[in-house]
Amino acid sequence: MAVAAGALLGILGAGFGIAAQIDAITVTHRDDGFKIAFDAVVDAPTQQVYAVLADYARLGKLNPIITAISVDVAPTGRGERVRSVIKACVWFFCRQIVQVEDVTEPDANTIVAHIVPGAGDFESGSCFWRVTNEGPRTRLHYEATRVAGFWIPPLIGPWVIRRTVREQLETSIVVLERLANQK
């Protein structure tokens, strides 16, 4: 369930005084879109972290850039259709982005989402979340591709997006840990 590269990327991170850590973030320009990947460790039990990530209707609690969420049954009857509205800003470039994804949970540790072309502001894309147990902590692996259906200024390249992703991760980790540890 990738509420968007800019949204669900705002779920993990590391900050001063918390136990979570970002192990890696990569952002690469790919054809007419971007590929984003990160690995992080969260100081919360795996099942509770997964429960927070899979609670699509409440993803807005994780990061204020997610301004609206709606969840319905996917038209295929398999999984859910998640529509999110995100206010994304990179430097001077701000945009309200609508993302619509069909989300499935193939197993108790994996979330997979595919952009619904023509239903939002992305032409195509997908994402993959995998949570694994590391004792009392949880490792999160995330990979996403996004092809925007809107103009992105040429000055906004992978390094700027990577910095923005890291900032969002850092601001959201406290909330993810708190919510996961309350479950």
Summary?
By secondary structure, the protein is α+β, with helices and mostly antiparallel strands. The chain has helices at residues 5-8, 46-53, 158-182, and strands at residues 21-30, 33-42, 66-73, 80-90, 93-107, 110-115, 122-134, 137-148.
Furnish the topology, listing elements before pairings.
Layout: H1 5-8, E1 21-30, E2 33-42, H2 46-53, E3 66-73, E4 80-90, E5 93-107, E6 110-115, E7 122-134, E8 137-148, H3 158-182
Antiparallel strand pairs: 1-2, 2-8, 3-4, 4-5, 5-6, 6-7, 7-8
Helix pairs in contact: 2-3
Quickly list its features.
globular, 3 helices, alpha+beta, 183 residues, disordered N terminus, 46% strand
Which range best describes the helical content: under 10%, 10-25%, 25-40%, 40-55%, 55-70% or over 70%?
10-25%
Largest beta sheet, briefly? 8 strands, antiparallel
Number of strands: 8
- Write the CATH architecture name: 2-Layer Sandwich
3D structure, described in words:
With 183 residues, the protein is α+β, with helices and mostly antiparallel strands. The protein has a single domain (5-182), classed as 2-Layer Sandwich (Alpha-D-Glucose-1,6-Bisphosphate, Chain A, domain 4). It is 20% helix and 46% strand. It contains 3 helices and 8 strands. Strand 5 and strand 6 form a beta hairpin. Helix 2 (46-53) crosses helix 3 (158-182). The longest helix is centred in the C-terminal third of the chain and has 25 residues, at 158-182. It is globular. The protein starts with a helix and ends with a helix. Mean pLDDT is 84; it is low at 2-18.
